[in-house]
Every structure is written in structure tokens, then in C-alpha cells.
Amino acid sequence: MNTVIAVDRSGSYRVYLTVTTEMVREAIAIHECTPLAGAALGRTMTGAGIMGLMLKDEHARMTLQIKGDGPAQEILAAANGMGEVKAYISNPYLDLPLKGPGKLDVGAAVGAGTLTVIKDLGLKEPYVGRVDLVSGEIAEDLTQYFTVSEQQPSSVALGVRFGVDGGVESAGGMVIQVLPDASEEALKALEDMLFYMDSLTLLINDAKENCTARMGKEPGELQICEELLKLIFKDVPQEYYPEILDRRQISWHCDCSRERMARALVSIGEKDLKTIIDEDGEAELSCTFCRKKYHFGREELTELLRSASKK
Ligand SMILES: [Zn+2]
Questions:
Q1: Ligand 1 centre and the CA of 284: distance in Å?
Q2: What does the domain layout of the chain look like in residue ranges?
Q3: pTM, whole model, 2 decimals?
Q4: Which CATH architecture has domain 258-309?
């Protein structure tokens, strides 16, 4: 596990806190991202993973789409209630100058555009919410989405930090939701905490160091996450201190399959399928999310054509 859900003692706010270093590393390896593309992708998928856990029903699904006029083009992350996330970025090779020492310019990579959330809650129609991007830095945009589209006052922090070797050093996210009947004092304490808070990824590094020193070995992501919660809220008064209610997992998982790819082939229609068989005699499809390749030979395609013509 790598995620904690906590509520403060006065019932004024809820915290989702996650350390997603491993998941972001995996996604960046799959999509062969540059650090800038990886930061944009990692922030988006960490945010989506937390939003997946908010769905309550494990089989419910949601999609978070960031579409801007910057070179990143589209970033899409899909998550379910179990915290399983898959994601892609249209342009994984993008690169722009740093906006400050060690600061990747995710805002410029994304540009101006929209953030769209689609939730499939098993109802007739999916829920769709859309807001204009505030900065393209993802966390601010999500804060805007929660506040405006869901009328849920929230604070969002998302981060991906790269080490000198160019690999992901730490990644994680935090969403704080203000609960109804929150006390003024609790909100004031929260505001102060957020004002003085260090960057999330630096705090993850500190938490990891603390755990390593205490345990004498490499800590797991859940241990880092619990230590991180202590570090972030260390100056918050006891009566508003968050208590962990639940421990969950946010991880990379692609649910593509041969059957699904076959259905996609059938859906292009009899005529086009026949053209593929006649001209190429085979087809290779690759999954947009995990880039796994699926090969279909002539026999299989003919079989699919038969099932398409039955429809
Ligand atoms: Zn896949």
C-alpha cells in the first residue's frame, strides 16, 4: 500500500495522501517520457488515482483529461475505485527550458485549455465535469475543478521530482477536502500549514530519510506515506490533527486484453475489416495506455469478419 485517508479529530477536513514513486517510474518507462512529460503524466495520474479512491464503489471508473494548446497536447489518466490507474500523454518526448533551477515548466508544456472529468458510476449517463485550466500545473487546475465543478472546497498538491541521474526520485499527491460544518479554527490551522508547507516531493524525500534512519533499511511506500503525514501536519494543533482511517493502494494497471482489441477491430466495420484482410492479411494493434502489441493473423481476422457480418 502507498496511500492513507485521514480525518482530523474535529471532523473538519479529510486528507488523501499518497506516495506514487513506483507507479510514476513504471508509467514513465512504458511511455519513454522525457522528465517534463513524465512530470505532467505523473502528476495527472497521481491525481486520478486519488480521485479513483474517492469513488467509493470499487468498480466505478473515472477519467481525467487535461487538454491544452501546449506541446504536451493531451494527457489522459483513467482510474477505478480500487486505485488502479492507466495513463498516456500524446507527446512523451516534449522538452522545454526549465522555468527555474530544477523547476520543470509543466504549465507551459500543457498551455491553456480544459480539464475534463468523466465518471462512470454505473448509472445510465456518465457524469461529466469540465473547467478551464488555471495554470496547466495540474494541481491548481484540479483544485479549481473540485471547488467549481463539484462544489467541494479542496486543496491539491501533486509532485514528481527527478534525481541527478534523470530518474524519478519521488512522486506523490495530497488532496485535502473541507468537510461540511468544519470549524473556523481548524481551517485557520490548515491554511497556516499549507502556507508554510515545503514542496511535497522534498517532504517525501525527508520522510524517506527519517524512515531509513529509524528502520536501518529501505522503507516501503506506506511507511514513507505515514511518516509524510506526520511531517506535513507536525505543527497543526492536536485537536485538528489527522487520524488515519484507511490505508489503500494506488498503482499502475492496464486492463487491455485480446478480446477487447478484437472488439475494436470488429467495430471498424465489415468493409474496412475486409480491406485489411485483402491488402495486409494481418493487423497489429497496440494499446494506447500500456503500449502492449496485439497481432491478428489472416485466420483470426477472417473469423472476426464473420462475426462482424452477423451483426
Ligand atoms: Zn494496455
A1: 14
A2: 3-252, 258-309
A3: 0.94
A4: Alpha-Beta Complex (3.90)
